């Protein structure tokens, strides 16, 4: 067998590409090792110590470690293998504890967009229409209110912004997806 020439660069990798390839190999090695340990069963002190040594040798951050553990815990195939090797005993408890977030996720506020006001207004109109349907009322074409069933004793408890005009609802029904926001503005705030 001929000797391997270590001085040649057959892949033509520069230093940056070599560093990236090495980092990829390190991450894959850690991921594969953690996968094998998860498939063996419950996390114990020996496995935890081995993972600690691998983290320091391969430069794996605590966040990356926890993400890999969560990936392994949520893998259905690994869970099936671990349960079958441990005679059906649940063996994910310690792994789940190991993969928990260090701090809780932040609560995100409801997004407010340019169309939030329009969406709220249309939702209130729809709620008013639904309320009238629940009460057995409907509106005819000439905007006269008619009652088709007897009024129910229980009134809905939600608050609805009063409807400005019946015509507004009819105009909004004629709009389609190609309507611009400028066209919608004139329906929300009609010129006086």
Q: Short summary of the structure?
A:
It is found in: Nucleus. The protein is mainly α and 192 residues long.
Describe what you observe in this structure.
This protein is mainly alpha-helical. The chain has 2 domains: 15-98, Methyltransferase, Methionine Synthase (B12-binding Domains), Chain A, domain 1, CATH 1.10.1240.40; 116-188, no CATH class. Helices cover 55% and strands 3% of the residues. The chain has 8 helices and 2 strands, in the order ααααααββαα. The chain has a two-stranded antiparallel ribbon with strand order 1-2. Strand 1 and strand 2 form a beta hairpin. Helix 1 packs antiparallel against helix 2 (45-58), helix 1 packs across helix 3 and helix 1 packs across helix 4. The protein is elongated. 7% of the residues are buried. Mean pLDDT is 74; it is low at 147-165. This is ENT domain-containing protein. Keywords: Nucleus. Residues 18-103 form the ENT domain. It comes from Ciona savignyi. It is found in: Nucleus.
Gross geometry: elongated
Give the second-level CATH assignment, the architecture of the largest domain.
Orthogonal Bundle
Give me the count of strands. 2
Low-confidence stretches: 147-165
- Largest β sheet strand count, sense and barrel closure: 2 strands, antiparallel
């Amino acid at each position: 067998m001929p000797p391997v020439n270590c001085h040649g660069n057959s892949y033509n990798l520069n230093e940056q590409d070599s560093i990236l390839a090495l980092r990829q190999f390190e991450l894959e090695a850690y991921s594969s090792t953690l996968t094998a340990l998860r498939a063996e069963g419950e996390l114990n002190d020996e496995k935890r110590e081995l993972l600690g040594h691998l983290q320091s040798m391969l430069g794996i951050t605590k966040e990356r470690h926890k993400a890999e553990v969560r990936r392994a815990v949520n893998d259905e195939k690994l869970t099936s293998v671990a349960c079958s090797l441990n005679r059906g005993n649940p063996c994910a408890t310690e792994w789940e504890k190991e993969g928990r977030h260090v701090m809780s996720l932040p609560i995100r506020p409801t997004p407010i967009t340019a169309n939030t006001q329009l969406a709220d207004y249309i939702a209130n109109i729809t709620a008013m229409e639904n309320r009238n349907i629940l009460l057995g009322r409907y509106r005819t074409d000439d905007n006269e209110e008619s009652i088709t069933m007897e009024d129910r004793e229980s009134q809905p408890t939600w608050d609805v912004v009063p409807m400005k005009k019946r015509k507004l609802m009819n105009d909004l029904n004629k709009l389609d997806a190609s309507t611009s926001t400028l066209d919608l503005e004139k329906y929300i705030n009609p010129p006086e």
